[in-house]
Amino acid sequence: MQGPFGDWLPEVVVYHPTRFDDAQSIVLAVRDLQTVLVHAAAMAPEEAQRLIDFVAGGVAAMDGQSQCLDELTFVFAPEIVAITRDPRSGS
To answer: Which fold would CATH assign to domain 12-81?
Structure first.
């Protein structure tokens, strides 16, 4: 299907990981040019931190970007997507 962006259709995927093994799927989604919202509330804090660190490293290695939205919610995007925050949000 040809969209306004050529063959690439923007997509946001929401993940609610429950175990560290979900990290690979998240990194692969970003590699496949999907923007990923991760809400890690279902995980133990130590395991959630490990998952976020792994994903952030994988995304950074692909020149993607990440943004912490709150203590348990993060957004990861491929290089072709810009993440900007509302300047009024104070973050």
So the answer is: Translation Initiation Factor IF3 (3.30.110)
